[in-house]
Amino acid sequence: MAQTGSRYSRTSIETVTKLAIGAYYYPGWHPCPVRDSAFPKGWSEWDLLKNCTPRFAGHNQPKLPLWGYENEADPKVFDKKLQAAEAYGIDFFVFASYWSRGKRLLEGALDQGFMQAKSRGKVRFALMWANRMPRKVMPVKDAAARLIDPSRLVYTDPADFLEYVRHIAARYFVQSDYYRVNDACYLSIFDTAFFIRQLGPEGAAQAINDARAHLAGQSLKLHLVAIDPIPEHRPLLKQIGFDSVTHYVFLPDWSGPYHQDFSECAREKAAIWQEYQPETGLPYVPSVTPGWDASPRAADYGKEKPGRYPWSPVLTGCSPEKFAEFLRLAKTFAIEHSQFFEPTVMISSWNEWTEGHYLEPDKKHGYAWLEAVRSVHG
Question: What is the CATH number of the domain that holds 42?
Fold first, then answer.
């Protein structure tokens, strides 16, 4: 890779042939004991998807999975996912990892499904600390309730963060197929803003330094990724100890109208990718999504459309072809801004059906979402 006197170099698209594509994996598709206490026994988010009804003319609900309503904690089910991911150009999954002071949730997809699958090996895996607990009531019925219930917030401190890193290092970082960036184990934090607000910049830096020191004793390194950092934190990220920046779902405009056009939102977001490296001093990895529609997680209010998540907004005009265009923009950006690691693009997500962003085949488009990935991956 050609380099200049600057730490970061711009690389010609023609000189780079390898692109790494990662997909976030949402583990909400298997029963778990914690959710059995709040929902009917055996409940999973497939129940939300099945029961969703169209909210307006032309509304593509309910989404219908081509593979059916499968239990992701079954290794045979995960074999199929891994085989499809490999065939269509997904290089690694980033699993949402729910941890709250030693309590883990929704771990069946990773521990029982992925880890036990016979097809493990070529599609690597990594973790995103989902430092926000899953909702206890869905579909959401109270439009006046707080967007994030206090019971969902995950409070931490340096000792707790160190314990989390110890746990995932011993169980996952040591795996040969764990995704690494320059030999450093990849870990992202979903709500980076809450993490920094809660600990403060100095406390967050201490937590990260302690984790790195522990890993060094295990001959391991850490590549820590900040997700969706707020403007006031961006200049501090490098000093705190983060290594790169990305997003989860970067579409749509959360304060915008109920209906938003996919292509228009994609162009607007792609135009500001370039702002993150100068603001943070860190590499930025673009994140793209095939759509957004969280209607299955919201009670049907008829003509009333509460102007907030999960009712609003809804992206319209989504298609595999438009998704491929968005992905091409991300590929071009990633290659032109390659910084100390291979050009990388994140996709949100492999399977968050109840928010309307997924690559798994559905009955309307078949494998077209995955075919879009393969057409761009090269």
Answer: 3.20.20.80
